[in-house]
Amino acid sequence: xxxxxxxxxxxxxxxxxxxxxxxxxxxxxxxxxxxxxxxxxxxxxxxxxxxxxxxxxxxxxxxxxxxxxxxxxxxxxxxxxxxxxxxxxxxxxxxxxxxxxxxxxxxxxxxxxxxxxxxxxxxxxxxxxxxxxxxxxxxxxxxxxxxxxxxxxxxxxxxxxxxxxxxxxxxxxxxxxxxxxxxxxxxxxxxxxxxxxxxxxxxxxxxxxxxxxxxxxxxxxxxxxxxxxxxxxxxxxxxxxxxxxxxxxxxxxxxxxxxxxxxxxxxxxxxxxxxxxxxxxxxxxxxxxxxxxxxxxxxxxxxxxxxxxxxxxxxxxxxxxxxxxxxxxxxxxxxxxxxxxxxxxxxxxxxxxxxxxxxxxxxxxxxxxxxxxxxxxxxxxxxxxxxxxxxxxxxxxxxxxxxxxxxxxxxxxxxxxxxxxxxxxxxxxxxxxxxxxxxxxxxxxxxxxxxxxxxxxxxxxxxxxxxxxxxxxxxxxxxxxxxxxxxxxxxxxxxxxxx
Length: 499
Prior knowledge:
Number of domains: 2
Shape: globular
Number of helices: 25
Protein name: Major facilitator superfamily (MFS) profile domain-containing protein
Order of helices and strands: HHHHHHHHHHHHHHHHHHHHHHHHH
GO molecular function, one term: symporter activity
Pfam families: Sugar_tr
CATH topology of the largest domain: Growth Hormone, Chain: A
Distance between the termini: 24 Å
Largest sheet: none
CATH architecture of the largest domain: Up-down Bundle
Domain Major facilitator superfamily (MFS) profile: 28-480
Subcellular location: Membrane
Strand content: under 5%
Number of strands: 0
């Protein structure tokens, strides 16, 4: 399977049904971009709505900085069991129904948070939403990758990331608008907003197709063929994709039966994690290191904390008006949407690795600039107007660099390189690492900047992103290759490593 682009797909057309399916599934990402941290762009990024709502929740419920950090961090903690459950659930019940389940859980959690008469109830609702976030972080990129053809996989698999950033912008805009409402009502409107689109997603997903790769894993070859005919441009392309998928699952490529008996272990995903971690082959080991690595550097690079606590960062430069703070954060959302949109067209043209390297390099320079500026401000006795403008401008540039590369590529790359038998549960492990590192960063950021100054914290993030830059340079390129080719790509590198 050395083909770079699947046979029959040389006409270069984007399949409309595949595009529509991924766009619909991407609603889940827009919802969580509005209401939760995704670093999927972080596919993490952080909670747009929460970045503003925390300001008002703290005032309304009279909670301290420690409680604010716990509220922000517990969502990520509760996402961990969601991540692990989502992988097995999607292997057992399917990708489509897992998206539906995550939407239901998220709706319930959002409503409970909006009700939140006390910190305890708010925290419970937040934890429920966290579980839904864990589900969504796994299933959106998996579904998108498995529906997409190789020639447009970067474009289509990054659509959830674009949706996250659109949701992020909507969250910032809603913060600015709802900030004008009475204190007790405003933040509740912020947190309940995503419930309606999540309900719409449930209806949409009932109408959409299941992942053809999951169907083949269940032995439902006939159904998979029908789906592939819908998401492929030609019958030849559909048959070629089906042949490759059957080969990976262990079904005779020349078998013409619509229903094939496959081992229960394959259908349910049982034992996948044990096989992934216990004496994996050299290519699989390198895939695992690459997938986990990109997720770890995504979070420890600091973008999550910067987005979540952006009002505090801008406040350090001398902005005191809450309305102006909310307006300044809207610019972050605008920057993310613009560069996420640009990124989706670059992924399949310049490649994953180039975007990662450029993105990391730009972040290092931007973080150094912010560190120098904020250090000057912190040791100055006067509020400098230039510091406000410079900090906001460089923060926007920092977000732009992160969004054009590391943000979307992390999710695209990790979802496509994991072999089919490990994809959902393996991505669950990656996202668990993502959430753990995110929790560490967002729950410790206030304490860190109080200990080493705000400027010092940015110097620390710059050093971490420098290490990330080195790591990204070691990764093989995957643009244009079929999902079934990934072990071959990483196997070549592994063979070189042994020489």
